[in-house]
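Human:
If only I could read backbone structure tokens as easily as an amino acid sequence. I am handing you a single protein, as its sequence and its fold in token form. I hope you can help me see how the letters and the tokens relate. Thank you; the sequence and its tokens follow:
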Amino acid sequence: MKITPEILKKYASQQCSEQENKIVERWLKTENQTENEEDVNVPDFLEEKIWTNIKSTIAVEPEKKETIFQKKTTWAIAASIALLIGLTFFKQSSSSPEEILVCQTLAGEMKNFTLSDGTLVHLNANSFLKIPKKFTANTRIVTLAGEAYFEVAKDSLRPFTIKTKKSETTVLGTKFNLSAYADEQTTLTLDEGKVSFKSKTNTTKPIIILPNEQAVLTDESLIKSTVNTKYYKGWMSNTLYFNNESFSSIAHKIERGYGVEIQIKKLQLENQLYKGEFNNPNIETLLDDLSYVLKFKYEIKENHIIIY
């Protein structure tokens, strides 16, 4: 039986059959449930019931930032709250007594929060962070899908490790941006300190990243270069930087940041490059400026944008 919002609703209301209870509880105890969690779109009617069950186990209370999409609809805000609460269950592994918490953002929203060791996390849109309620005596390990900026609290006795689907990053105390969206290359950009960065999918040796350096993980290798880090952390202050970026990449970032869908009918636009900076623009202002430079027209229908 697949875990669905309806099953979770019954479970939160204590209306499940014995068999359904066992299935949900087995799901909650599974160590690696990232794929299942992403498949479950928890609706807003679960908010109060699930909150009653889990509020005593929440270790962090994320500070939600206002996003650059100022016209977010009511249902999207409600869904965002329900998704965070619905996924922040008390999860106890059968092989470990560790309490695992999950924070997830939707398209068009960001969250800031502090971990139990004092590490500050800024979680970008469409991202997922799995964290222990309390770190162990020897290690600090979290799992990321999407993008986050970490200000890691210094602790020379306990390395801080971020695992993604394709990479593993280990630090002692530093500030860096890690982007690990499923449909993009994994990219680490360092502001302060020193980072060890390696691939989980090939035999490439770990590389050391220093301030103002960036590592990009491709299918076959790790590529390191010197960069201006402001281009890779502007999202935290609702600033968009496009540094000679293709329009297809820009459209993808707009979809994620504003919670919209973009259809590009003018195909020759996709590989056109653009360089520019926008400080907290609304969607119309952004599209007006881009369309003037890149010579296209657009039409907005609710959360769907057609480029032609």
User: Anything to note?
Assistant: The longest strand covers residues 140-151. Confidence is low (pLDDT under 50) at residues 31-61, 68-96.
